[in-house]
Amino acid sequence: MILGKYLAALAAGLAVFSGCSSKPSDTQSPASGAGDDWQSRLDGMLPLLGHRNWIVITDMAYPLQSGQGIVTLYADQPYLEVLRTVVDKIKEAPHVFAHVYNDKELEFITEAMVPGIGELRSGMRSICGPEAESVMHEKLISRLDEAGKLFTVLIIKTPQTVPYTTTFFELDCAYWDADRQSALDALAK
Questions:
Q1: Within-domain flag for 136
Q2: Which secondary structure element, helix H or strand E, spans residue 173, and what is its range?
Q3: Quick one: which H or E segment has residue 58?
Q4: What are the CA-CA distances from residue 10 to residues 43, 45, 118 (Å)?
Q5: pLDDT given for residue 36 in this prediction
Q6: What domain range includes position 153?
Q7: CA count, 13 A, side-chain hemisphere, 69
Q8: Rounded to an integer, what distance in angstroms lies between the CA atom of residue 168 and that of residue 152?
Q9: Is residue 3 part of a domain?
Q10: pTM for this one?
Q11: Does 6 reside within a domain?
Q12: Is residue 61 included in any domain, yes or no?
């Protein structure tokens, strides 16, 4: 009975995950009109994601990455709405929490450069909270490249056309922490 339930759940998870291939031909694009189901695809993937996986919310100019572990979806909704949805879904998940990073370059963009940038930054801070860390964009991209070699990185592109409005969520285990892991490692030596 338990094995049957496990196999059914595994099959359902694989069916959802297989629909999120990282091959360019399977990637969501604005032209495909398939961007409407990004939330259901996120809902299907989130239980499969865990420690060391990433979720990234991006602006429109973010490149379509081709790494093996990269899955890209398109959300045809405002950036802040997508950001709010992802933050809420991560908070509701019982198995993960996220370390949140924003592009450091965003801090230096002025209203003269991009009108409305202050309001956008304020909205991002309001949604992500004060614990969001600012890191140079290229450093975050390098971390994604490395993570994508072994783990899934879910990228959700939005129609946002403001530079450096990428928010990175590095997932971590919600029910096990570094202190307990250190204690366990010490016992296991």
A1: yes
A2: strand 167-173
A3: strand 54-58
A4: 15, 12, 45
A5: 63
A6: 18-188
A7: 16
A8: 13
A9: no
A10: 0.79
A11: no
A12: yes
